[in-house]
Amino acid sequence: MWSSTLVLAASLAGFFEVASLPLPGPHADSFLVDLQGDGLADLGILDGQQLLFYEQVMEKAALQIALPEKTTAIDIIDLDNDGWCEVLVVAGNAVRSTTLLAQPPYQWQTLFECGSDFAALTSAPFLHVLAVSHQDTLVLALPTERGIELRALGGELMETYAFGSEAGTRITYGRPFIAWGVHPSELGGPEALEFRINRVSASKPDLPEDLILDDSTMMRSNPVNLQRAQLANVKPPEKWPLFPLTPAAGQQIHAAIAVSEGIHPLTLVSTLMEDPAAVVSEKPSIADKPGPIRRYPGVPLFTENWPDFDGDGYYDLLLWRIRDLQPTLNRVTSALLDGRWPVRLTAHLFTPAKERFASAIVAQIDTTIPTEWLLSAYNGLPLRHLVVHDIDGDKRSDLAFSNGPNTFNVFICNSDGILPAKPSFTRDFEEEIAELTFVQDLNGDGKASIGLKGSTQFFILNPARAAVEVDGLAPILPALAP
Length: 482
What we know:
With 482 residues, the protein is mainly beta. It is built from 4 helices and 36 strands. The protein is 5% helix and 39% strand.
């Protein structure tokens, strides 16, 4: 039997309870699922042939379910509309399910048997969308050699949508074709004139509309990255990468952004208004005269979500820069010996009345990071496990990040939209943080919990609800042999 110790954080009057859950194995994956249909996320851990569930993480008993042999694909969904999820698996040619509503030991029911591409897989089980809604009916979508088969829960074949060479639509990527000469000839004789022609194409199944994801769900909320911003530096603002200044649909104001290169990088921002008379298209139509270019010291933290620190509905600007802007020999030597490099974060609020980011810095955070992180910064992100999210439920963005392998810091924004200079919460874990797995409201109170994965433990920062210490979660129920 496993146990977990719940530790209350001392910082910020115990803002976070930190739960430490042991990972069953080094390759265990975590996911969130609403087991009871109550709108609250529960934590699931998949490790090889077993599933673990922690209902709302720290409140109810954890369930341990052993998967049938040869299981490859897993889906968790309410199949019978009773409010509780079932575990749906493909094990060989069999499609099987078990309900979490019953008491253990759980019984696996075989819904039907049919061949699918999943049967030939030898990999460990993985999460996959098996049950989909089609014409207001829940059906199972299984990939086969012939295409995507839609089957009723009893196994009846309803429809097949071909892919590959039999698909109804083919898409060509890039140029229609690329041709180049080959010399000396490889296929013909010494005097042969030989060319190579390359064409990249793919098939697109003609799926019904209710099985096609909306394009907006496939797009990242922030398409701008450091490379694009640096390349735009030599172009006029009309050709800079754009990002919206408000998450609201139909917004008519964007910002064009570029970044200068060098020891003293600057973020260049020009506010652009969308032409209301233009026809709506994939790219916003921008007025002929962009706003003046304004310069801000530093490089944007290109995150998936842009921050709104003051909660006014407009995104704000969060920048980073090396604090010691003159890398003298002494400073470089000191940083290499110490193993850490100073980094400064600054924030500028957007002023809607002036249609620009304020030049004044409203928040400044000085921290240090391992020197190797600076040298291996990906997409302009020297910090690890970066979170820009409303953590405390006040409709204002907060900030969290790791500035060391084992350290995680949280900065809670105040009512004026100002981040504190020092962390509101900090925690040094006993092992290195390998992955940020989720930022999600698990308790239904508008406050976000944060999941961090280590090498042997899974850490959950959950907003504190009671100043008590609990030794051990409720016992895990007995495992069921397949």
